[in-house]
């Protein structure tokens, strides 16, 4: 069964514009819902590590994954052409996220360099008094360095399939047969890298930066009135009560097992 499609010739330029803006609005609205929902999940301390390390990457990949999924549906004969469109959209969105938002965040977040150390950002008030790009900058945290290394490492599957493709020639069936094993190897490595990425994100979810993010989410939700102060701190209070109960239990157990309670003598 073929997927219902709309022929561009049947809708014209105005119809295509309407479809473009409608799809953009739906995608933007859905992304906002995903963002707000994931932020609310961060308010649960017991799930904060899982949400920040596993759920958020999955939710962030849902729109791109959906584009790739639907671009590969339909007739097998047209799958190669439609997948090319999906891969192009995915590559374009990834390149855009790695360039425009990154550059704007660095530009807006830059501060003056320290007078004693020209290459050390100085986070003191006022933070920005100079307009020169060579006299201002941002500090790079350990998470940024680790993320950059992870990005460079995860490009290996691309070269694993691209380099053999340079040396293959012939018709589509011949090239596909030659790339099949390399594509499967790249898929296995991609899955392994993805699991490694989730593992590192879960480990990093309890650091100070992620805790500050959770505090910022609590402040933002309180300002919007989406949650009360009691609701925002409820999970924190429950978590602290559990830790206190475990601490008291360990103290009680240690006291019961002490030599004095067992009738033993303390020798010097």
Mean pLDDT: 75
What is the straight-line distance between the termini? 87 Å
Structural class, from secondary structure content?
Answer: mainly alpha
In percent, how helical is the residue content? over 70%
Give the helices and strands as they follow along the chain.
Answer: HHHEEHHHHH
Radius of gyration (CA) equals: 27 Å
Instruction: Name the assembly state.
Output: single chain
Q: What coarse outline follows from CA principal-axis ratios?
A: extended
Task: Give unreliable regions as ranges.
Answer: none
Q: Can you list the strand order of the major beta sheet? A: 1-2
Supply the number of helical segments.
8
Sheet with the most strands, sense and barrel status:
2 strands, antiparallel
Strand content: under 5%
Number of strands: 2
Short description, anyone?
Helices cover 72% and strands 1% of the residues. With 268 residues, it is mainly alpha-helical.
List the helices and strands and how they pair.
Elements lengths: L7 H34 L3 H27 L7 H31 L1 E2 L23 E2 L4 H12 L2 H11 L5 H33 L3 H17 L4 H28 L12
Antiparallel strand pairs: 1-2
How does this model look, in words?
It is a single chain. This protein is mainly alpha-helical. It contains eight helices and two strands. It has helices spanning 8-41, 45-71, 79-109, 142-153, 156-166, 172-204, 208-224, 229-256; strands at residues 111-112, 136-137. The radius of gyration is 27 Å and the shape is extended. It starts with 7 loop residues before the first helix and ends in a 12-residue tail after the last helix.
């Amino acid at each position: 069964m073929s997927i219902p499609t709309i022929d561009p010739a049947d809708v014209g330029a105005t119809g295509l514009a309407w479809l473009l803006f409608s799809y953009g609005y739906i995608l933007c609205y859905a992304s906002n819902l995903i963002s707000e929902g994931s932020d609310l999940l961060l308010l649960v301390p017991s799930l904060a590590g899982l949400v920040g390390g596993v759920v958020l990457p999955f939710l962030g990949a849902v729109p791109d994954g959906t584009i790739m999924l639907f671009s590969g549906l339909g007739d097998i004969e047209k799958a190669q052409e439609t997948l090319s469109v999906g891969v192009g959209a995915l590559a374009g969105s990834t390149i855009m996220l790695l360039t425009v938002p990154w550059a704007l965040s660095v530009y807006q977040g830059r501060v003056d360099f320290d007078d004693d150390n020209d290459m050390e950002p100085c986070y003191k008030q006022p933070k920005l008094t100079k307009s020169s790009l060579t006299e201002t900058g941002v500090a790079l945290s350990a998470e940024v360095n680790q993320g950059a290394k992870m990005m460079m490492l995860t490009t290996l599957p691309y070269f694993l399939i691209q380099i053999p493709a340079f040396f293959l020639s012939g018709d589509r069936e011949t090239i596909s047969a030659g790339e099949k094993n390399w594509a499967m190897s790249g898929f296995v490595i991609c899955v392994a890298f993805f699991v490694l990425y989730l593992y590192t994100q879960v480990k990093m979810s309890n650091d100070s930066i992620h805790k500050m993010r959770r505090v910022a989410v609590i402040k933002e939700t309180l300002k919007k009135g989406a949650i009360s102060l009691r609701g925002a701190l409820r999970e924190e209070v429950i978590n602290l009560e559990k830790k206190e109960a475990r601490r008291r239990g360990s103290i009680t157990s240690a006291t019961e097992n002490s030599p004095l309670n067992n009738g033993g003598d303390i020798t010097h």
